[in-house]
Specification:
There is one protein chain. 45% of the residues lie in helices and 27% in strands. The protein is of the alpha+beta class. A five-stranded antiparallel β-sheet has the order 1-5-4-3-2. The radius of gyration is 15 Å and the shape is globular.
Length: 128
């Protein structure tokens, strides 16, 4: 499956806060928090559901994969979305292992597995 998605019992805002803390506990920082609904509303396009896009990164891991191949940078930083759908808050991300299948480098693919495990653990912690 291309993505990993979990349900959250919290609001989008609370989920983003809990998720940011969970990532920080795992040495990942939130570089950017983009409120897509607010931006689309501002542009008078509108969006019915809340939708936030977080870009997260661990600088040491980013350097490691970029040292192996700069092409890995096409997938950095990692994206995580928090959104409402059918009155349910969800957290989702494209799986790093799936993205890095396109990078012909076994070391990078191994790192992608570790990153995926860590990010999924943070997602699961945020919904407790």
């Amino acid at each position: 499956m291309f993505h990993s998605t979990v349900n959250s019992p919290y609001s989008v805002e609370d989920t983003v806060n809990k998720l940011s803390e969970a990532f920080q506990d795992k040495q990942f920082g939130v570089l950017w928090d983009f409120d897509a609904k607010a931006k689309l509303d501002e542009k008078e396009v509108g969006l019915d559901n809340k939708f936030r896009i977080l870009e997260v990164c661990n600088p040491k891991i980013a350097k490691q994969v970029l040292t192996e191949t700069m092409i890995a940078g096409y997938f950095l930083p990692c994206k995580v979305v928090v959104y409402e759908e059918d009155a349910q808050t969800k957290i989702g991300m494209p799986r790093p292992t799936v993205l890095m299948e396109h990078v012909d480098n076994e070391k990078v693919q191994k790192v992608a597995q570790d990153v995926e495990n860590t990010m999924e653990a943070a997602m699961n912690e945020a919904v407790k």
